[in-house]
Amino acid sequence: RRETAIGGELDKISENSMIGSRILVFVRLRPMAKKEKEAGSRCCVRIVNRRDVYLTEFATENDYLRLKRVRGRHFTFDASFPDSTSQQEVYATTTADLIEAVLQGRNGSVFCYGATGAGKTYTMLGTVENPGVMVLAIKDLFAKIRQRSCDGNHVVHLSYLEVYNETVRDLLSPGRPLVLREDKQGIVAAGLTQYRAYSTDEVMALLQQGNMNRTTEPTRVNETSSRSHAILQVIAEYRVKDGADVVSRIGKLSLIDLAGSERALATDQRTLRSLEGANINRSLLALSSCINALVEGKKHIPYRNSKLTQLLKDSLGGACNTVMIANISPSNLSLGETQNTLHWADRAKEIRTKACVANEEVIQVPAPEADQAKLILGLQKEN
Ligand code: ADP
Ligand code: MG
Question: What is the ipTM metric for this complex?
Fold first, then answer.
C-alpha cells in the first residue's frame, strides 16, 4: 500500500475496537409497549452481563429474584442491550468505530433485523428527540471531519433507497424504479440521487422526509414500511495533495433498516398481499440462504436471488466491517418471532468477512493543473 500524507495517522482505529474479520452481532431489547401490557404480556427476555440473552419463557421475575439465576434458552452476542439502553450507547458500541474506518476509505455496514414493531426504525432513524444510528453516525462523521487537521478535503454524499416488492426506489427523489448494475465498486443503483451533505442539521430533516417516502401499507396507515427495506448510503471521500498527485480515499457506510422478519403470510390481508408476501419472503429468504451459505463456507453464495441480497453483497461476504443489530420485543406474545430473530443473529456470528482494505486511488493531475487542484482543494475546504 502506498504511504501517503494521511497514511499513518488515519490508520489508528481505537485499540479496543472489535471490528475485524467477522460480522459483529448485537441484540437490542425494547421496552414493553403499552399495547403489549394491555394484552396481558409477560416479559420473556432477560439480558445479563450486557452479553447474554435468556428466553425465560417459564421463569417469572420472582423466580429470577428467588433463584438469583435465569433459566431458559440462552444466547451470547458481542453485546446485548437491555431496554434501558440509550440511543447514544447503542450507537457508540455498534457503529462509532466504523466511522473511523470509513474515514480511512474502508467500507462498513450496519443492519437492523427483527420483526415488525421490534424497534428497527427506532434504532436506525429514531425520533427528533432521540435520534438513532443513522443520524448519530452522520453527526459523528462531520465532527471527526472537523477535527482533522490534515491539509485535505472531505466530501460527504448521501443516498437513501428502498427495496419494496423487489423494486428499488430512490427515497430522496421518488420516481421511476432504479435498475441495479454492477460496476467496479460493486452493485450500484443507476441514477440514484447522491446528495451532497454539509452538516448534520439538514440530514435529519432529509432522512425524515425520505422515510415519509417509504412505502406504507395501505391497510395499516400508521404502520410504516414493515415490508420495505431502507438503505442509507453515506459516501465519504477524502482528497489530499501528494506531490503532483491527488490521493483519493472513498469509504462507504451503509445503514440498513430491514423489513419485518415475521412470516409474511401471518397477516390479515393474506390474499391481497400474497404478491408482496412472496417478495418479502423472497428477499428475506434470499438473505437467510446467503447467511447459511456463508456460514457453511460454500463457494457459491446466492446473492443474485433478490434485490436486497445484491445490494448487501459487499456487506455480507465482502471486504467490509459489518454489524448486525437484532431487535426484539420483551413480550411473551412475540416469543416465536424473538426466537426466530435470535436464531438468525446467532447464525450471523459465524460469518467471516474479508480483510477490509482502504479504497485508495491516486488521481494523476497534469503539472499545470496541479496548482489548480490545490486551489480547488483549498476552496472546498472553506465550504
Ligand atoms: P420496527 O421498525 O422494527 O417495525 P419501530 O422502530 O417502529 O419498529 O418500533 C415500534 C414502536 O416501539 C415505536 O413506537 C417505537 O417508537 C417504539 N420503540 C422501539 N424501540 C424503542 C426503544 N428502544 N425505546 C423506546 N421506544 C421504542
Ligand atoms: Mg420500521
Answer: 0.99
